[in-house]
Design goal:
Distance between the termini: 67 Å
Number of strands: 13
Helix content: 40-55%
CATH topology of the largest domain: D-Maltodextrin-Binding Protein, domain 2
Number of domains: 3
Structural class: alpha/beta
CATH superfamily of the largest domain: Periplasmic binding protein-like II
Length: 288
């Protein structure tokens, strides 16, 4: 028996009462609470004894609220709805989906994303790593590696990049490296090498040699392990220079015809524009 309404178990009995009153069924309340109908009946009887009022009229196959029970049921319903609303606000976390290539993510975005989430504790940023052209409809914000001379409507250029040939430092590759045996290493296609060779007046046929890899970080790793000469994009290759794993071959650099562009999905939540503004502001800072 519950002797004192201040007893914590008194509140527990009110939970049993609320579900029984809402469904007008001890069996249904038992299913919701994952207990037996007998347990529901005992807790409600104890509640009735504690407050000195009958709350239900018990019949063979049904229960009905008494006048006192109906009054208490209205009160518990209001309180229950308020609790659900408050806990919902506390536990609901807004999720922002950001599509980005794994290279830019690991080298630049991922180390910074925690600062943005710390400023917005009710938000979680989910990174969708995509190699190649993503489906922008699947993300709130998309950051893509794209041609600069054909910008898509609604996109913002984040970074201008310079293309430089890079190789492992121990190879001692000369200025006219295309005359040697060391082949080029390509990312996805031969476009970057063709652009660099054309812009510098070097032999175009050099671009037709070498292997084609599908992930930019692997291209740089392959070059660092001495497999050939790769096109690195400043400033994203700077860390390899600082670590002594790659060196700039020769002295020539060419403004890249590609760069990273940002696009906000037109159907995205308002937080997407706030995130996009944050990314743009970070992109203006020197990479570190």
């Amino acid at each position: 028996m519950l002797a004192d309404p201040k007893d914590p178990s008194y509140l527990g009995a009110l939970v049993y009462f609320h579900h029984a009153a809402e469904s007008l069924s001890f069996s249904r309340a038992a299913q919701i609470l994952n207990v037996t109908p007998s347990a529901v009946s005992h807790r409600i009887t104890a509640l009735e004894n504690a407050i000195g009022k009958r709350l239900f009229e018990r019949r063979v196959r049904e229960v009905r609220l008494t006048q006192d029970g109906a009054e208490l049921a209205r009160a518990t319903a209001v309180i229950w709805n308020e609790l659900k609303e408050i806990t919902g606000k506390l536990t609901t976390q807004e999720v922002l989906r950001v599509s980005v290539g794994p290279y830019l993510s690991s080298q630049w975005l991922l180390p910074r994303i925690g600062a943005f989430e710390a400023q917005h504790p009710g938000l979680r940023v989910d990174l969708i790593h995509v190699i190649g052209q993503p489906d922008v409809r699947l993300a709130d914000v998309s950051i893509t590696w794209a041609q600069l001379d054909d910008p898509a409507t609604g996109t913002t250029l984040l970074f201008n990049t310079k293309a430089v040939p890079v190789a492992a430092p121990g190879l001692n590759v000369g200025e006219n490296f295309w005359e040697g045996k060391l082949p080029p290493i390509h990312y996805r296609d031969r476009t970057a090498w063709r652009h660099w060779l054309s812009a510098t007046g070097a032999p175009a046929e050099y671009a037709e040699r070498g292997e084609v890899l599908e992930e930019p970080h692997i291209v740089l790793e392959a070059a660092a392990f001495g497999r050939g000469v790769a096109i690195g994009f400043l400033p994203f290759v700077d860390k390899f220079f600082e670590q002594g794993r790659l060196v700039h071959v020769g002295t020539k650099s060419v403004r890249s015809n590609r760069g990273y562009r940002l696009e906000v999905n037109s159907d995205a939540q308002p937080m997407a524009n706030l995130f996009a503004d944050w990314v743009r502001s970070r992109a203006k800072e020197k990479l570190s």
